[in-house]
Amino acid sequence: MSAFAAMLRRELRLSLRGGGDVLTLVLFFIIVGAIVPFAVGPDRTLLAAIAPGIVWIAAFLAMLLGLERLFRPDHEDGALVLLRQAELPLSAIVAAKLIVHWLVSAVPLLLATPVLAVLLAMDLDSFGRTMISLALGTPALAAFGAIGAAVTVSIRRGGLIAPILIAPLSIPVLIFGVGSITSPQSSAATLFLAALSLMALALAPFAAALAISSAED
Amino acid sequence: MTDRQVFSPLRLSASGLSCGRGGMALSSNIGFDLANGQALLLRGPNGTGKTTLLLTLAGVIAPLAGTFSAEGADPDSRWLHYCGHRNAIKARLTVLEDLSFWAELNGPTGMAPLEALAEVGLGKLDGLDAGFLSAGQSRRLALARLLVSLRPVWLLDEPTAALDTEGHALVTRLLDRHLGMGGLAIAATHDPITLSDPTRLGVLQLERAS
Asked: pLDDT tens across A183-209, in order?
């Protein structure tokens, strides 16, 4: 257990001390949302109607942006080979990385969502539901992203391939994510979203660990 | 050597081992037999597959042919340390944080991290951001990782790269003690290594596969 805690501590330190990374994601998230009113015009009803979709698209793109730093730095400096030799199973190492990845990329987005809600003229009710839907859905995005990042880690410039790989996996997350905000059966969509996240979180560490250990260095 | 034996009997053997990258064989028909307290030096010109052989033994690359076995290895725990030519050191972590992390991850079965830092000559740098270490100091930190978790087999790829004369002596000292404790080591190096007991040392000359 202390090995798992040490892994979490290391990942948190590395992410938070490179403070600029977190800020980049948040700014990207806000910018994607902020340019929409300029593109579609200042029609408040139209904006409010498409706001849930915009927020989810912004979150999806921002989460993609952070994928590169999940395994690639460790691959480049040789740490990934050593992590494969660690006493802690590789799937647990990936799980620790995944938890920290969610904490430093999804949680800041959640905190920045009020800014987007104001820019996109959301009402308070759909803002609340957006927060819940992002909180429930982003773990699935992070988990699918981890699988994509693991599969492409040994490919040079694989950072561009990972989004293509995980886009089909992420589509259900977007459908149920937006559905849980706007659809008349929003509670069913919310449950589906939660189920997707749980399933993805349970599978991703093993799938990503398998991808890493079957890749030649 | 007066060190007590801490490792249980272990025998590494390979026969007809052939390894390569990208489907191309670099070295073929490698065979060796190594018991507790023995070291094997891999020699050979650049591109003869020394690193590839070490990675194959570490289980990172699948061998093209042949077998490799470790008799007596504990199947429930990791029994080898791989020290590659990339040092796997993170800027933004202090030297001590980096070493403590690997100690926790691999099991703190060896020296305490501070003691290991003093041993490799980084004693006063424990609070420094590891990104500021020089190439030789990074190498020393990578070697300290071998000391904080006890594992019977060391696979060393150019352990003396970037090290000064004192650093060469350090590598020899660490190897001597590891072998004295009943450990095994396989090292790829171009530098001469003189152990206190030369009978422990075997040499495997790798040739370019034709």
From this structure: 888 899 999 999 999 999 999 999 999
Q: Which of B61, B93, B106 sits opposite A217 (nearest CB)?
A: B61
Contact A157, A97 (CB under 8 A): no
Contact (Cβ atoms closer than 8 angstroms) between residue B6 and residue B181: yes
Residue A120 is classified by DSSP as T
Closest C-alpha to B19, from B64, B74, B79, B77: B64
Q: Are A148 and A67 in contact (CB under 8 A)?
A: yes
* Among B56, B63, B61, B62, residue whose Cα is nearest residue B155: B56
State pLDDT tens for residues A37-58.
899 888 889 998 899 999 999 9
Helix pair A186-214, A161-182: axis angle to 10 deg? 160
Q: For residues B41 and B192, give the distance between their C-alpha atoms in angstroms, rounded to a whole number.
A: 10
Nearest Cβ partner of A88 from B61, B84, B105? Answer: B105
Chain A residues with CB-CB distance to B59 below 8 A: 84
Range(s) of chain B covered by CATH 3.40.50.300? 1-79+151-210
A171: exposed, middle or buried (C-beta count within 10 Å: 0-12, 13-18, 19+)?
exposed
Burial of B92 (0-12, 13-18, 19+ CB in 10 A): middle
Return the pLDDT at B69: 87
Superfamily of domain B1-79+151-210, CATH level 4: P-loop containing nucleotide triphosphate hydrolases (3.40.50.300)
- How many CA atoms, within 13 angstroms, populate the side-chain half-sphere of residue A162? 32
Residue B1: the pLDDT is 43
Q: Is B189 on the interface with A (CB under 8 A)?
A: no
* Pairing, β B11-21 against β B65-71: antiparallel
In chain A, where the domains are located: 2-214
* A6 sits in which H/E element: helix A2-17
pLDDT in tens, B99-126: 999 999 998 888 999 999 999 999 899 9
Say whether B105 and A14 touch across the interface (CB within 8 A): no
ipTM at complex level: 0.89
d(CA A198, CA B159): 45
